[in-house]
Design a protein that fits this description.
alpha+beta; 14-stranded mixed β-sheet; 2 domains; 36% helix; 383 residues; Aminopeptidase; two-stranded antiparallel sheet; 14 helices
Length: 383
């Protein structure tokens, strides 16, 4: 058992305890709102979503690894949380001995953050891992990073938000920056650049190339195609490991609830899918609007708003083309088509996240009239 107790001057009794029950997991999910819920930029998660990621029925636990959620208490009240994460799929694929941390939230107190980091590091070190990296919630395929620029407005779907003091406290707690990630906003009312339109029109005239949207009536089959393309197209990304088909199939119900089929797009050559772009309506608009409700009332309001509220923004989450077709202009075609289609319903598309060294996508986003809107950082610590 992990149990760290100490007396701190003017701070009272402090302890860090693992979550061992459903009630404790629920408390773990609710901690960010308890700490930051009064901030106008905080957006609560859909009720039960965090428990679904790390609880006993989690696909991550079944297919990829293990999660040890920890809560920090001061005088019996939660003041922070962290999860120590073992991702066997990542380590097996990358031949690494990296441990991960995530779901890291805390009051503005370096001693609390450092104690949580040390507790997670202790768990991972006991498991024979040599490095701790994060935050991942719980993997690189989920929310990840610390928001260091752009904290002054609510974030988009599956992109984390935190107060401005987090980055400074991370460093004071002994964590060093390892990667920088960007989000870019693309205003959809602008006309696409003429040279991009010219290239796209030339590509469209080729009989072998076509564009189609996802067929939600055959979702499982479409997810099998996305599974194949995801693992082929993104394998050169830092920190990549193959996603399991079960991950996608498990997400099918959530996808049905929030997806806009028109903005999930495949590019085909001779009728065969060789690339895709996955954009999602920014349902954080709905979740943020429901933040004044509690418990079942919040759940009901979110569900109703998902049905009736017009969502004004979307997020382009993934775009990739098979290696054999990367030099044929199909990435540019997908990029263009994603925004052209989204323009009919949305005002802004966020492209996120993009590594700071991914000049191809960053230059394309700028060419489409976009601007960098947020910066996220990933951190690492030797064990």
């Amino acid at each position: 058992m992990i149990q760290h107790t100490q007396n701190q001057a003017a701070a009272g009794t402090f302890s860090i305890l693992p979550c061992r029950s459903a009630a404790e997991l629920k408390k773990f999910e609710e901690i960010p709102e308890k700490l930051h819920g009064t901030d106008p930029n905080f957006t609560p998660p859909f009720p039960g979503s965090v428990v679904g990621l790390i609880g006993p029925k989690s696909v991550f636990l079944k297919k990829h690894g293990e999660v040890t959620p920890l809560i920090a208490y001061r005088d019996g009240k939660p003041v922070g949380r962290i999860a120590a994460i073992v991702n066997r799929s990542h380590n097996n694929h990358n031949k690494d001995s990296v441990g991960f941390f995530g779901f890291f939230d805390f009051i503005n107190d370096v001693s609390v953050a450092k104690a949580l980091v040390d507790a997670a590091a202790s768990v991972l070190k006991e498991k024979g891992l040599s490095v701790m990296r994060g935050p991942y919630n719980p993997s690189i395929n989920d929310d990840c990073g610390v928001l260091t620029e752009g904290n002054d407005r609510p974030t988009f779907i599956s992109m984390p938000w935190n107060p401005t003091y987090y980055a400074e406290v991370y460093q004071a707690a002994g964590l060093g920056n390892i990667r920088t990630l960007y989000a870019w906003d693309i205003p959809l009312h602008k006309e696409q650049p003429a040279r991009v339109v010219k290239i796209v029109n030339w590509l469209k005239k080729r009989n072998t190339v076509s564009i189609r949207s996802i067929d939600m009536k055959n979702l499982n089959k479409e997810l099998e195609t996305i599974h194949r393309l995801y693992n082929q197209c993104l394998d050169r990304n830092w920190g990549f490991y193959p996603i399991a088909l079960e991950d996608l199939l498990h997400a099918a119900d959530d996808l049905k609830a929030i997806a806009d089929p028109s903005i999930i797009v495949f590019v085909c050559v001779d009728g065969r899918e060789v690339g895709f772009s996955l954009a999602l309506p920014n349902v954080n608009e709905v979740f943020h609007a429901s933040r004044g409700r509690k418990g079942v009332l919040r759940f009901l309001e979110m569900a109703l708003r998902l049905q009736f509220q017009r969502i004004k923004t979307d997020r382009l989450t993934v775009l990739g083309v098979e290696p054999a077709y990367r030099d044929k202009g199909l990435s540019a075609l997908l990029f263009f088509e994603s925004f052209r289609i989204a323009k009919a319903k949305y005002e802004v598309s966020e492209v996120s996240w993009v590594e700071a060294n991914n000049t191809e996508i960053l230059e394309a986003a700028e060419l489409m009239g976009g601007h960098r809107s947020r910066t996220y950082e990933l951190y690492e610590k030797a064990l």
